[in-house]
Amino acid sequence: MTGTPIKVDIDTYRLKVSGAVKKELSLTFDDVKKMPSERVFSELVCPGFFTDSGYWTGVKIIDILNIAGINENAKTAEFKSLDGYLSDILIDKFSSEGFLIAYEFNDKEFAEENGYPLRVVAKGEAGSVWVKWLGEIIVME
Fold first, then answer.
1. What class does CATH assign to 15-140?
2. Which terminus of the chain, N or C, has fewer Cβ atoms within 10 Å?
3. Alpha-helix runs per DSSP H in 10-116
4. Using CA atoms, how far apart are residues 32 and 34, in angstroms rounded to an integer?
5. Are 43 and 52 in contact (CB under 8 A)?
6. pLDDT in tens, 37-89
7. Strand 86-90 vs strand 15-19: parallel, antiparallel, or unpaired?
8. Tell me, what's the pLDDT at 49?
9. For residue 103, is pLDDT > 90?
10. Are 119 and 130 within 8 A, CB to CB?
């Protein structure tokens, strides 16, 4: 584990989607869990710290962005943790397998220290991109 665990009140938690989108979103944890999901095997590598291999379950990032309606000039999505940590990924990568907003690892919801309630899964990307305690997705032009 890296980072300082964040205690999340699931009753008030919202995943926000903002920026270069046609419709901003504010999704509850249950809203996300009710969306069509995908389960992928991927290895999370945090060089010098740890490696976790297993099955991640969640919603494809592109599916959430499509609900918001990505502006045609959008190039990247910035992921913001509830603690302020930021990471970004080119939107073009989301058509590949393994780019999820995940809520389970090996069929169990994340523990607080592992990013509960939602985290980014970015298959093939460095662990620093896999934002934990995800609070907002900001689409950038």
1. alpha beta
2. C
3. 29-34, 61-68
4. 5
5. yes
6. 999 999 998 877 778 899 999 999 999 999 999 999 999 999 999 999 999 99
7. unpaired
8. 78
9. yes
10. yes
**Helix ranges, 49-102 (H):** 61-68
The rounded distance, in Å, linking the Cα atoms of 141 and 30 is 29
One DSSP character per residue, 38-99 reads EEEEEEEEETTTEEEEEEEEEEEHHHHHHHH-B-TT--EEEEEETTS-EEEEEGGGGGSTTE
What's phi and psi for 43, nearest 5 deg? -105, 125
Contact in structure between 52 and 8 (CB atoms under 8 Å): no
Domain ranges, ordered by start, for the chain = 15-140
Backbone φ, ψ for residue 16 (5° rounding): -100, 145
49 CB-near residues (< 8 Å, 6+ apart)? 2, 127
- Amino acid of residue 41: F
Closest CA to 102 of 136, 134, 77: 134
Distances (CA, A) of 81 to 17, 19, 39, 132: 13, 16, 22, 6
Q: Which residue has the tokens 């985290």?
A: 119
- Is the backbone of residue 78 left (phi > 0), alpha (psi -120 to 50) or beta? beta
In whole angstroms, give the CA distance from residue 7 to residue 20. Answer: 30
